[in-house]
Write a structure and sequence with these properties.
45% of the residues lie in helices and 19% in strands. By secondary structure, it is of the alpha+beta class.
Length: 185
């Protein structure tokens, strides 16, 4: 497959389109194949709150459960950034009709007075993406640090437990000896 970049250079991509999309996560509602709006992510409880754009399903569920359930309704067309009709990249999203629009869709003027969001304006910048990547990296580092601390604390607790167990055993033996000595007297 050959791709064209903004600089009008051609890049030969050796992967087949299906291979490229095989590992993609397609974010959609857990009840239907509609796109979602993420309302919040609770990091303490590892949960996600979202609302379905088309059917208005509103849910709060654990993130791992969400990731398992979205597989049932994965629809590549919803998460595709290419117009099915004109085969062009989407330019904006019509909030009145809940659909993406490419340049040719806009030229049809079917959405002239509708409220729209330009995708370019709401798309994260490279700087924002770097910030998000750094946040993810920091959380991964924190997780690793906590796992290491857990291992160290578990070892410490095991060692203290063994020490206490040995002390109790020594006291028991000492008490037995004393009792035996008293019995002999």
């Amino acid at each position: 497959m050959i791709k064209m970049t903004k600089e009008n250079d051609y890049i030969i991509d050796t992967k087949e389109p299906e291979q490229q999309r095989q590992n993609e996560i397609l974010y959609n509602c857990t009840e239907c194949p509609s796109s979602i709006e993420i309302l919040s992510i609770n990091e303490d409880e590892w949960s996600i709150e979202f609302q379905c754009i088309n059917n208005k399903h509103k849910k709060t569920i654990p993130i791992n459960e969400y990731l398992n359930k979205i597989k049932n309704f994965s629809d590549r067309n919803i998460n595709n950034d290419i117009c099915d009709i004109h085969n062009l990249r989407y330019e904006c999203y019509c909030l009145g009709c809940n659909i993406h629009l490419c340049k040719d869709c806009l030229k049809l003027r079917n959405h002239v007075n509708h409220f729209k969001n330009n995708i370019i304006e709401i798309e994260p910048t490279k700087k924002e993406m770097n910030i998000y990547e750094n946040i993810i990296k920091n959380y991964e580092d924190k997780i690793q640090k906590l796992e290491n601390e857990k291992i160290i604390k578990t070892k410490d607790l095991n060692n203290k437990f063994k020490e206490c167990k040995n002390k109790i055993k020594e006291r028991k033996e000492l008490n037995l000896k004393e009792n035996n000595n008293k019995m002999e007297l």
